[in-house]
Amino acid sequence: MSMEMNLKLTQEQKLVMTQEMQLSIRILQMSSVELLDYLEKEYQENPVLDTEMPDEVPRDTTQEIDYKSLLKYLESDNYSGSEVQDYDKDEVSPLNFVSKEETLSEYLTDQIRVLDLDSLTEAIAEFIIDSLDPKGYFSDPIDEIAELLNVTTDDVMKALLVVQSLEPVGIGARDLKECLMLQLERKGLATPAHREVIQNHLDDFAEGRTASIAKSLKLTPGEIQDIMDDIRVLEPKPSRGFADGRGSSYIIPDGSVRIENGEIMLEMNTEFIPRLKISKACRDLMNSSDHKDAHEYLKDMMNKALFVLKSVDQRKDTVKTVIEAAVNKQKEYFVKGSDFLKPMTMKDIAEDLGVHESTISRAIREKYITTPKGTIRVKDLFKTAAKGSNTEVATDYVRDSIQNMIKGEDARSPLSDQAITDALNASGIDIKRRTVAKYREELGIRSSSKRKRI
User: Fold this and answer.
1) Higher pLDDT, 314 or 296
2) What are the DSSP calls for 56-68, one per residue?
3) Residue ending a domain, choose from 210, 232, 254
4) Is 407's pLDDT higher than 50?
5) Which helix (H) or strand (E) holds 264?
6) Nearest alpha carbon to residue 197 among 236, 172, 168, 208
7) Cα separation of 270 and 42, whole Å?
8) 356 neighbors 349 (Cβ within 8 angstroms)
9) Which of 63, 163, 361, 454 has the fewest CB within 10 Å, making it most exposed?
10) Cα–Cα distance measured from residue 162 to residue 178, given in angstroms and rounded to the nearest whole number
11) What's the structural domain count of the chain?
């Protein structure tokens, strides 16, 4: 076999694995509502899928499909399944003009598909688009994604640069600094001075410390002011203005937690998932059909259906494993109350389970559980910690402490941020005044000078 053919085969194998992994990860990070919508759509569009749902009358696939009607279906506009097509050729369905909000993912994917990209780069780029956080940033480590998709880091970087070239500018940035630099580069303003301000003086920029930056960069305050004006009009959140893609205000809990004799009991909710299966009639038709096009089409649909079913099963197992690990680690929270929520990060659970942190992030995305306290997001069980001399305390506990101190203060002599800091330090929580001020502002509490009453 020639080197060229070997290379082509390797690329094709990479592409298939990347597309399958992309689908598997997409399904993992879907909320229950999104998964239900996705499976209903797959059921409608893939003739190989049948359902065991008791409320549904299974499709009579034997009567519905033969290779002649199948080929006619393939050649028709109905194949896309994206528009209402029950009208005569010269008529237009009014439903095709119903306005719908466009998600960022849809907007970016539309741009990707008109570019002249090789199939592997396009598949990785679409994976990156699916992995963007709510702000439009791509925070997953490049080497981790390469390992996950069985491609090289160069393959991932090539696709990331494609995503970063799309509109809105700044999309796919790995952090705020890169987001701002991408926008400046597109505007032709990425001078060394602009770069220096963004890379090393963002805190000074936020506080308006023009003189400090000018002194450090050996520029005049006027020159620094011009640079700051350029940066000030940039968009730190490139996803702003796009629909979030949820399209629904209701949720379907993924599981429920109850307490029995002081023990945690977790029960997963899988009843909402349609019980899909491969249609026996389609299997028989594929095995008996002598028509090459019909056989190949059914084979493709069969492979896709099998992988969807496999991915849904993997999602069930992964989500259950992750939620179970998180719930068990926070046992005291469920048994004793919210004051006992311990610091716990996604990295902690990832290390316990021997998986990537990004897997944990996707597994808990928009996942909910019902508890004796009500329905909560699984993500809310994960809390960072404030380091103390004697212990580690969840940030929520610190915020609650600040709020309680302020509630009990003398209105004529309210506590300053420094006084609160000193009190927390005395209780064993090592925290800076700046952090106290940040938490106070997040709680919507004004400064001590504005709280003072005469």
Assistant:
1) 314
2) S----HHHH--HH
3) 232
4) yes
5) strand 263-268
6) 208
7) 18
8) no
9) 454
10) 15
11) 2
Residue 391 has pLDDT above 50, yes or no: no
**Among 48, 52, 109, 51, residue whose Cα is nearest residue 302:** 48
Structural domain boundaries, residue 418: 385-451
Tell me the mean pLDDT in the region 268-284.
Answer: 83
CB atoms within 10 A of CB 300: 12
Supply the DSSP string of 178-233, one letter for each residue: HHHHHHHHHHT---HHHHHHHHH-HHHHHHT-HHHHHHHHT--HHHHHHHHHHHHT
The neighbour count for residue 141, using CB atoms within 10 Å, is 15
Average pLDDT along the chain: 80
pLDDT of residue 65: 41
434 within some domain: yes
CATH code of residue 170: 1.10.10.1330
pTM flag (> 0.85): no
CA distances from 372 to 256, 259, 326, 335, 338 (A): 9, 8, 17, 10, 12
Distance (Å, whole) CA 56 – CA 275: 11
For 414-436, the pLDDT digits (tens) are: 889 898 988 888 877 778 888 88
Q: Kindly report the backbone phi and psi dihedral angles of residue 83, in degrees, each rounded to the nearest multiple of 5, phi listed first.
A: -135, 160
- The predicted structure's pLDDT at residue 314: 92
Residue 212 has pLDDT above 50, yes or no: yes
Residue 281 belongs to some domain of the structure: no
Which residues, listed in sequence order, are joined to residue 393 by a DSSP beta bridge?
Answer: 386
